[in-house]
Each structure stands twice: as structure tokens, then as C-alpha cells.
Fold this sequence. Notes:
- By secondary structure, the chain is of the alpha+beta class.
- It has one domain: paralog of FGE (formylglycine-generating enzyme) (Alpha-Beta Complex).
- It is built from four helices and eleven strands.
- The N terminus is likely disordered.
Amino acid sequence: MLPKLAFFLLLVATFVATFAASPPSAAWPQGAPKRLTPRRDAFVLIPAGVFFMGSSESEEISLPNERPRHEVTVSKPFYLATHEVTQDFWFAVTNDNPSRFPGERHPVDNVSWDDAQLFIQKLNALSEGRRYRLPTEAEWEMAARAGAQTTYFFGNDLAQLGDYAWHESNSGGQSHPVGLKKPNPWGLYDIYGNAREWVQDYYGEYAASPQVDPTGPSNGAERITRGGSWNCLGYCRSAERVPFAPTERVNIVGLRLAYSAD
């Protein structure tokens, strides 16, 4: 039996050979590259830990749905992708690219939460053993903070945001290839800005009491996105949260993969 990594790379290489011999689907944006670059997204291990989730009214920017600030325990380590899912990777799995801003290394955008789930389902069918998923909202925020309890993982100085994120003041009104800005201390690129990211949870109000491995409400009308995007500034923060309907496709929304460490 092939080792897991070799098996996965062989599958991606098979995709490349297939797609190189035939034209991409009509949904692939005009002028985008027709050949894929086989690659395997890197993941970093996010340790278990305790942090304060949300924001407080004393912060310069704090929205009502980010309060109350409350203690959260993430009891198990997990892996999170260092980069957002790119258009070439999405295309390799789905033979489609719905993105409004074409570019192999740009984050995929214009995908709904339901689309993300279907993508993950297809990816898992091609993977041996490892089961990919979206991070929970608590997992996402703990990873974004990287141990910091300030507004940003780098402190409270908004003037530094451009070193780490594509936002409304430096993006030129579009997304950019992933990984061009500095990562956070845990090695995560574009955790703020570029494309906001779907998480697993339904949208709901926070509880004031301490929580252990929260997964949000058991049902609801909306799912949550995190991290801000290329068209915002004040929303590119660790505590920021914006809901969308799970069927909604927006050119500012993509995703980042996770998988459990056990």
C-alpha cells in the first residue's frame, strides 16, 4: 500500500494529467491557466489551550455580536492549513472554479458554505485516512490569536495590518495570491483579509459562561465567516464574525481546511 502522502500526491498528479489533456470547464474564468500545479497544502499543528473569545467594549473596535468576551477551552490539538484553499486546488478536486478573481494561487471565492461542504466531501473521498473539515469558530479564533489577547495577533496598532493582510486600503479591490503577506506567529498566512473564511458553526449569540469545545447552536439560518477580506479594514480582526446564509455565494468568501489530530 502506498504511504498516505505518496497516495495523495499521486491522486493530484492524476488530476493534472487528466486536465492537461482536456479543456477546463466553462466555469473556469477566461484567461486563467489551463495547467495545474500539483501541490499539497501545508498544515500546522494548533495546540490545545484556553483563551478569551470575542471582544470587550473597551477595545477600539468591538461589535455587539462579538460580546460577551468569554473563556473558551479547546481541549484537543488540531491541524489547520497554513493557506486558504486556492483556486488551483479547488479546481483539481471539483473540475470547476466559481471565483470572481481568477488566479491559480488566489484564494477560491464566491463559494457558499454548502459548496465548501461538497468540496470537502469530494476531497475526503480522494484521501486515504485523513478527514478534512472546516474549523469550528472557536478553533479558528484561537488559531488566529496565536496566544495573543489583543485586537490583532500583533497587538492593537491598526497601522501594522498592511504587513499581514490584504484589506480595503491596499488590495486594489480584489484578492491576491496567498502567502504574500507575513504569517501570524503560528505560521498562518492571510488569517486576516484576502478572503474571509467559512467555519463550521451556525451563527448564534455567545454565552457568558466558560465554554469547552463549543460548536455553536444546533441549528440556525446562517453560518459564520471569519477574518475579514480584501474589501474591509475594521473587520480584519481576531474577534470579528459575520454570518451568511449557507447557500450564499459572495466574492469575498472562501475557506481554510482543518483536520483533527487524533
